[in-house]
UniProtKB/TrEMBL annotation:
InterPro entries: Cyt_P450, Cyt_P450_E_grp-I, Cyt_P450_sf. Its cofactor is heme. This is Flavonoid 3'-hydroxylase. Keywords: Heme, Iron, Metal-binding, Monooxygenase, NADP, Oxidoreductase. One of its GO terms (molecular function) is oxidoreductase activity, acting on paired donors, with incorporation or reduction of molecular oxygen. Belongs to the cytochrome P450 family. The keyword Cell wall biogenesis/degradation does not apply.
Length: 339
């Protein structure tokens, strides 16, 4: 018998049991308004091909606070600044932990990373560590040369390609990812034409592309958690293979840092390894926890779209200034500034 038939029959039986249980236990607390869910699949069909536009349309009909049932998962949508403030500021602690997807759970070593760790003392320790060693004023100053070098390489690539079209989004991706990687693990992870070729960088790029594809897959187990064990779409098997590749990549880098460690911390990984050895550390780090924190792919793609759009907007606004650029630049930019 087909696994899909078995899965559907199992799902149907579990939904019937769930409905009977809800009927016996009595009515639930009142929920926000929302579109009437379909049997079994809930409001998934309402999402359409462009979910964010569908949600905006539903909010116009049902209000800024809306309830949806996505399969067996309850979802509340806040679509106004006032309502969002209630979630993100007033009741922040109640909603700080992120929902866990199947892909996110495995790629974060079972929620041990900064993005998916549940809100609590350990998450606050992660935030403090990253804030002090990556985002503090001292850290930004210490790693300023990294950003300057990577931006310089990107500008060099743009200058050498001045006579032809360039993929600005791809260049920004390489620049920001290599800047982040050098701060975190002390090495570049994307190859370009301005540096030494590294075969590990090609492997990393391949893994990131595979992960982005997996993150975009509609996975039934995310909306029907009872089906996760059946792995009807093979998502779990693919993610486990991808995790093994990432784990091998990160393990090699961690071991290299252990062998060639220096007294002065030069990147986040060196700091994490020293914290692991600290006897007074109440949130004891393990190698697996360190590798989870070093999962670079957590923040790569979304910001690329924003930077691409920002560059496009800047160029549009700069067109009227192109008639007399040098006098204007001399007036508003110091000679010692990096432009």
């Amino acid at each position: 018998m087909s696994p899909w038939v078995i899965g559907f029959a199992t799902l149907l039986a579990l939904i019937i049991v769930y409905k009977l249980f809800k009927h016996v236990t009595g009515p639930s607390l009142p929920l926000p308004p929302g579109p009437k869910p379909w049997p079994i699949v809930g409001n998934i069909p309402h999402m359409g091909p462009v979910p964010h536009r569908a949600l905006a349309g539903l909010a116009r009909n049902h209000g800024p606070l809306m309830y949806l049932r996505m399969g067996l998962v309850d979802v509340v949508v806040a679509s106004s600044a006032t309502v969002a403030e209630q979630f993100l500021k007033v009741h922040d602690e109640n909603f700080s932990s992120r929902p866990i997807s199947s892909v996110g759970k495995y790629m974060s070593y079972n929620c041990q990373d900064f993005a998916f760790a549940p809100y609590g003392p350990r998450w606050r320790f992660f935030r403090k560590t990253c804030s002090v060693h990556m985002f503090s004023g001292k850290a930004l100053h210490d790693f300023r040369h990294v950003r300057q070098e990577e931006v310089g390489k990107m500008i060099h690539s743009l200058a050498s390609s001045s006579s032809k079209a360039v993929n600005l989004g791809q260049m920004l991706n390489v620049c920001t990812t290599n800047s982040l990687a050098r701060v975190m693990i002390g090495r570049r992870v994307f190859n370009d034409n301005n540096g030494t070729y590294d075969p590990m960088a090609d492997e990393f790029k391949s893994m990131v592309l595979d992960l982005m594809e997996m993150l975009g897959v509609f996975n039934l187990a995310d909306f029907f958690p009872l089906l996760e064990g059946l792995d009807l779409q093979g998502v779990k098997a693919k993610v486990k293979k991808l995790l093994n590749r990432f784990d091998a990549f990160l393990t090699q880098i961690v071991e290299e840092h252990k062998i060639f460690k220096t007294e002065k911390h030069q990147d986040l990984l060196s700091t994490l390894l020293s914290l692991k050895e600290a006897p007074e550390d109440e949130h004891k780090l393990t190698d697996k926890g360190i590798k989870a924190l070093l999962m670079l792919e957590n923040g790569l793609d979304p910001k690329m779209l924003n930077m691409d759009e920002a560059a496009r907007f800047t160029l549009q606004k700069a067109i009227p200034l192109c008639a007399h650029p040098r006098p204007r630049l001399s007036t508003h930019v110091y000679s010692s500034s990096l432009l």
